[in-house]
Amino acid sequence: MTSDATVAAGSVTSDRAAILKIGATAGLLGGVSIWIYEIVVWVNIQHIMVLSGLAQNAVGLVFGNATKASLGFGVASVLGAAIHFGFAAAWGVLFATIWPWFRQRGYEATFVALFYAVFAWIVMHGAIMVAGPDHPNYYDPSVIMSGFMSHVFFTVPMALYIKRKLP
Length: 167
What we know:
Distance between the termini: 26 Å
Number of domains: 1
Helix content: over 70%
Strand content: under 5%
Shape: globular
Largest sheet: none
Structural class: mainly alpha
């Protein structure tokens, strides 16, 4: 026979496993969504980035443009995609971790995701500013709005996936 403590410990472990799996998957979904937004808006409408530089963008923001240039197109693209999707998965796991608290209080996932987008943008871009000088002008209103909107396109699909999949 199993004790109540064993059953409870097993459910906590399965909850953690579900949070990691669902959160990481949702983060990857959000990572794809943000890139679709950036292709449509940043590349094709605002012309602030070229399509071939999308994956490399993370390398320049994290390590600087000199490092990005020294790595070459292929390596910078692979490393940039790894950075992008690594952070996306981590943000997804964090949202999946906090979501049950909001769900229990009756909040809608999309509503929480909007605030999470702003929080994520502030944390990510604050860290980028600390990492080095190779970042966009974060005082430029168009950069701020584009950044916030890209994070909305990241967090909303991510949150809706988590809401649907997390038991």
